[in-house]
Amino acid sequence: MEAARLSDTRKSEARRSAARTSGAKSAAAHVLLVDDDVSLLRLLGMRLESRGYRVTTAESGPEALRKLEAERPDIVLSDLRMDEMDGMALFQAIQREVPGLPVIILTAHGSIPDAVNATQQGVFSFLTKPVDRDKLFSAIDEALAHTPAGSSAESDAWRASIITRSPEMERVLEQARMVASSDVSVLITGPSGSGKELLARAIHDASPRASKPFVAINCGALPEQLLESELFGHAKGAFTGAVSDHKGLFQAAEGGTLFLDEIGDMPLPLQVKLLRALQERQIRPLGSTQSIPVNVRILSATHRDLSQAMHQGEFREDFFYRLNVVNLKLPALKDRAEDVPLLARHLVAQAAERHKPFVKGFSPEALNLLATSAWPGNVRQLVNVVEQCVALTRSPMIPEALVAQALAAEDSALPTFNDARAGFERSYLVKVLKITEGNVTQAARIAGRNRTDFYKLLARHELEPSTFKPE
Asked: What parts of the sequence cross the membrane (predicted)?
């Protein structure tokens, strides 16, 4: 009997110790509590706050979604039976908005089929009312153990360089945090200048490889042989000018992450060699007969439509599926207009610190002009505009006229080589199609291309020959 009592005492002390530890650990955790019974909502909210949680309450599913849009909690507790939107419908809406956010369903009508159905769909836990205090706290602690509190500075350090309050960007970041812990290959897509390398670096910083190197290379910036040498390295004498052995970026990134930017521009022969390296987890430097094992995670990015490139025979399907285990799509800046003032204030503070400390920010009219601009160059263009404004301003508050001037200068600025080439290609194709009145055979002959290549060029620029034929 004495041994049993001692055992029970030790168990109780252990539970109290765990509760104290867990309570301290979860003090910063943010709980979104949803119930259409106001009195129960208030009572349960007080109980959670007494444990140290930060609580936001909502009296309906739609209200909960609005509050979720304004600020992402660490966990959601929702009643199952609610008039306007029940708990399962709310759960499904939350999963579309913030995949992976843990949801616990509470119900006075609990049954085994309901619980099985809920957990099969991905609900973290299912508790019946009246809710047992210890079971509730245990379920919350278990959920938070799988999802670190997003409101703490320490847990947010990995994404500190990405400034946003856009729900769409928050969804991307939530997915990025989820994939960071594994070693799966991630393909980041989105328009040029939208911050793909920034997101890749954030994934690296949130991963177990964070203490190892993050190495980036632009696959569209180098000719094929030089790119192959940069990736795999080369042996002395491998080619003219190879006067010594050279370690490639795979070896430089050993244990860490290799980021392949603009992967869509990689030549086909090199795609084959890189695919083999990824499958075999070893590389062979140019001119060497020895293979070298490598331990590297691959993140890649492109602004191109790789599905279209595969259809045109410009990108290997097997290589695509090797890279695209998870796809994260970054929105264009015009689709996250609420972030423009936020980014502009941050960028102007940085630029002012470097160049003109007296500059304090943008006038309200200037911020409004920034927020309503189209931003075809995305965040990269915004950075340029802010830098120009800080360089040219003579007053602490940057006026609207200076922003308008900087935007006009950006519109007339020299395009990148790739953009210029794409623009030339399209205008040339339009011209020859007009000359030949949409006759592809004649147009291809003028262009010095075979019909197959010419059709690929037309598809790349979304040009339809029939639109150039006479009525």
From this structure: none
158-329 and 333-411 share one fold: no
Task: Assess whether pLDDT exceeds 70 at residue 323.
Answer: yes
106: nearest Cα among 150, 75, 62, 71 = 75
Q: What DSSP line would sit under 355-383, residue for residue?
A: T-TT--EE-HHHHHHHHTS--TTHHHHHH
222-268 residue pLDDT tens: 888 889 889 998 888 777 777 688 889 999 999 999 999 999 999 99
Give 3-state DSSP helix, strand, coil % of the chain, rounded to 5: 50, 15, 35
pTM, whole model, 2 decimals?
0.65
- Is CATH 2.60.120.260 the classification given to domain 333-411? no
Contact between 233 and 247 (Cβ < 8 Å): yes
């204030």: which residue's tokens?
Answer: 345
Question: How far is the C-alpha of 196 from the C-alpha of 256, rounded, in Å?
Answer: 18
Dihedral sign for Cα 31, 35, 41, 47, please.
Answer: negative
Report phi then psi at 73, rounded to 5: -80, 175
pLDDT the model gives residue 347: 94
Structure tokens at 414: 């020299």
Q: Rounded CA gap, 90 and 286, in Å?
A: 56
Count of alpha carbons within 13 angstroms of residue 206, beta-carbon side:
27
Cβ–Cβ under 8 Å, residues 106 and 77 = yes
Q: Where are the domains of the chain?
A: 12-146, 158-329, 333-411, 417-468
Q: What is the mean pLDDT of residues 209-230?
A: 91
Name the strand (E) or helix (H) holding 470: none
Name the superfamily (CATH) of residues 158-329.
P-loop containing nucleotide triphosphate hydrolases (3.40.50.300)
Q: How far is CA 183 from the centre of its chain?
A: 16
Angstrom distance (rounded) from CA 43 to CA 40: 5
Which pairs count as long-range contacts for 382-389, CB under 8 Å and 24+ apart, including other chains? 382/333, 382/340, 382/343, 382/344, 382/347, 383/347, 384/410, 384/413, 385/410, 386/344, 386/347, 386/348, 386/351, 387/347, 387/351, 389/348, 389/362
CA angle (199 as vertex; 197, 200 as ends), nearest 5? 60
d(CA 143, CA 190): 32
Q: How many residues does the chain have?
A: 471
Residues 6+ apart with CB under 8 A from 390: 348, 351, 352, 355, 356, 359, 398
